[in-house]
């Protein structure tokens, strides 16, 4: 299985900050990475698919970059509603695997 | 706006089987892949498998091979996940999700399965 190593596991930030979360794949996966946001007690919601395509309805402060084995989700101008847990997921090879998550907490 | 509505929480004994349903509130699942994903504290999010738009299973994770089935009803409004030979490690929150072949953009609210003796 392809391993997705996500870092950091948690971070503290303030409203207005720029936040970056990285995901490294155990083998090259092209651009087959999706990013999800999950709030407590809710299902995940896709933010970015195919590494850099913003899901319809997702604010433009979210962006994704990367290809091959290294990927980054960036949140510019962090908003109060962005405090949540974020997961990467590779869609290159089944079983599709997820990173362990990054919890973004308020500083 | 379409929603996916899942069945209620389940409590099962080890060795038993469970069926979880997932119904689209407005439209059908036609034209979409349907994925099943579970979430437990240790392993985190685990993709279990998916159904193609035609209703055929596309793949299952090896962890569930031989004891999982994914089906849909004839109207393609409701999807089902069956998991057999349950163990304590199957205790998790189970999600259905609709989308493309390798991502999901509409998720159910989750069904909590507890396996306990």
Provide tags for this entry.
heterodimer, A: 107 residues, mainly beta, six-stranded mixed beta sheet, four-stranded antiparallel beta sheet, 10 strands, 0% helix, globular, B: 117 residues, seven-stranded mixed beta sheet
Helix/strand/pairing category of chain B: mainly beta
Work out the largest interface and the residue count of each chain. A-B, 22 and 23 residues
Cα-to-Cα separation, first versus last residue of chain A: 36 Å
Find the count of extended strands of chain B (DSSP E, 2+ residues). Answer: 11
**Strand content range of chain A:** over 45%
Low-confidence stretches of chain B: none
The succession of helices and strands of chain A, N to C, reads: EEEEEEEEEE
- Rg of chain A (CA only): 13 Å
Strand order of the largest sheet of chain A: 2-10-9-4-5-6
Question: Distance between termini of chain B?
Answer: 40 Å
* Element pattern of chain B in H and E: EEEEEEEEEEE
**Residues in helices of chain A, as a percent range:** under 10%
Quick rundown:
The complex is a heterodimer of chains A (107) and B (117). By secondary structure, chain A is mainly beta.
